[in-house]
């Protein structure tokens, strides 16, 4: 296995995480009905995701470039930062799914009603 595989992977994953965060932030810019404290938490969570991603990216870049040595501490920092940012991004996704209950229920109920109407009665 390549000694630098984790670092190269982090350098590819972090930009994708930041793009996903940016796109999510643009789509939820109008958080109508959200309290002030909740908006502050959303912004704080976005900043944490960004900082963790940047830490993982730069540590990986410095190890691949030879500026930092490949040590267990460097691997731990990259894995911890990636795990934290992916976990927080998952929390954003979970909150998004949880906040919109009408999308799944309305489509499945309309499908069920159409299916019942098209079934021949005996």
What does the model show?
Residues 100-122 are annotated as: Disordered. Keywords: Membrane, Transmembrane, Transmembrane helix. The chain crosses the membrane at residues 6-23, 44-67, 73-94. Residues 104-113 have a biased composition (Low complexity). 80% of the residues lie in helices and 0% in strands. It is mostly helical. The chain has a domain at 1-24 and 38-97. The longest helix is centred in the middle third of the chain and has 30 residues, at 36-65. The chain is elongated and about 50 Å long.
Kindly summarize this structure in a few lines.
The chain has a domain at 1-24 and 38-97.
| Estimated helix fraction | over 70%
Along the chain, the helix and strand elements come as: HHHH
Net shape: elongated
Number of distinct beta strands? 0
Ranges where pLDDT stays below 50 over 5 or more residues in a row are: none
Characterize the main sheet: none
**Distance between the ends:** 65 Å
Q: From the alpha-carbon coordinates, what is the Rg to the nearest angstrom?
A: 21 Å
Q: Approximately how much beta-strand content do the residues carry? A: under 5%
Structural class: mainly alpha
> What's the total helix number?
4
How confident overall, as mean pLDDT? 79
């Amino acid at each position: 296995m390549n000694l630098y595989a984790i670092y190269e992977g982090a350098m590819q994953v972090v930009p994708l995480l930041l793009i996903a965060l940016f796109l999510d932030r643009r789509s939820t810019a109008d958080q109508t009905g959200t309290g002030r404290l909740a908006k502050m938490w959303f912004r704080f969570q976005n900043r944490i995701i960004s900082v963790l991603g940047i830490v993982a990216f730069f540590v990986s870049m410095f190890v691949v470039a030879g500026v930092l040595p490949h040590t267990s501490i460097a691997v731990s920092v990259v894995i911890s930062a990636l795990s934290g940012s992916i976990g927080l991004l998952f929390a954003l996704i979970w909150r998004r799914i949880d906040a919109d209950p009408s999308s799944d229920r309305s489509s499945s109920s309309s499908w069920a009603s159409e299916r019942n109407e098209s079934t021949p009665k005996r």
